[in-house]
Amino acid sequence: MWRRRLGALLLRSPPSSSSTAASSLQHRRHHLLPTQEPLALNRLARLFTSQAGSDGDGGHSQKPFIAFVLGGPGSGKGTQCTKIASDFGFAHLSAGDLLRHEIASGSEKGELILDIIKQGRIVPSEITVELIRKAMEMSNANKVLIDGFPRCEENRVAFERIVGTEPDIVIFFDCPEDEMVKRLLGRNQGRVDDNIETIKKRLKVFESLNIPVVDYYSSRGKVHKINATGTADEIFEAVRRIFSSLRF
Ligand SMILES: Nc1ncnc2c1ncn2[C@@H]1O[C@H](COP(=O)(O)OP(=O)(O)OP(=O)(O)O)[C@@H](O)[C@H]1O
Ligand SMILES: O=c1ccn([C@@H]2O[C@H](COP(=O)(O)O)[C@@H](O)[C@H]2O)c(=O)[nH]1
Ligand SMILES: [Mg+2]
Hints:
alpha/beta, five-stranded parallel β-sheet, 11 helices, binds magnesium ion, ATP-binding, kinase, EC 2.7.4.14, P-loop_NTPase
């Protein structure tokens, strides 16, 4: 799908006098992402088409292997992603961390994001997808964990439309609510959303909006559900079995 969408646009020939293949991609993308820079677009297109890398720029030549990592707040997504990244060579992109980084930058968007995170709600898709897209492009990795995204069906559709691909697999950490609450209240990292009022809201949002995304990918045979109780090392044994069986 990725290749079909980007590759067809890039490799269309011959280019018309008013529009090269690359510029027609930029033109089309411009409608989707008005703030996108042409240089970044060219690079993204090169990275993710089958012909990429043949121009000797050192970029990888295939679309990256993408794993969405989902689970309730405090289910251990970040903890397990760190281990997967270290043992299996994945880039770890946490949507929450990208949003917190935007807050720390002091941008106007950051103020909006902070307000939403404090309320345990979901940040508009175009903001999050753009941060993820840029991070993927910068990492230039061929194996990527996207931690804590998509949070809702609208996020999922926006990712597939803007980035132009589906995940290869979805890891779902299944954890009882009382255990998640206990972990979050003990996390002690100064997060503005680790308080009982916001945690209750995050749990509701998780049930009503995030679970439907897991159900969607289950229906497409992509979900690996993992029991997220026990120690982090015990859980990682189950994770390891899944990643060891993958071909990427
Ligand atoms: N298996 C485990 N048993 C006990 N504590 C754990 C376990 N895994 C992670 N933790 C701890 O629970 C807290 C939440 O874990 P983590 O940050 O990995 O969850 P998360 O799913 O990324 O949460 P969030 O959605 O809020 O980002 C952390 O303090 C972490 O050290
Ligand atoms: O895709 C996303 C990811 C996160 N958010 C918001 O950030 C907080 C914290 O996310 P964590 O993954 O738990 O670090 C989450 O509650 C949302 O408010 C988001 O909107 N979209
Ligand atoms: Mg996390």
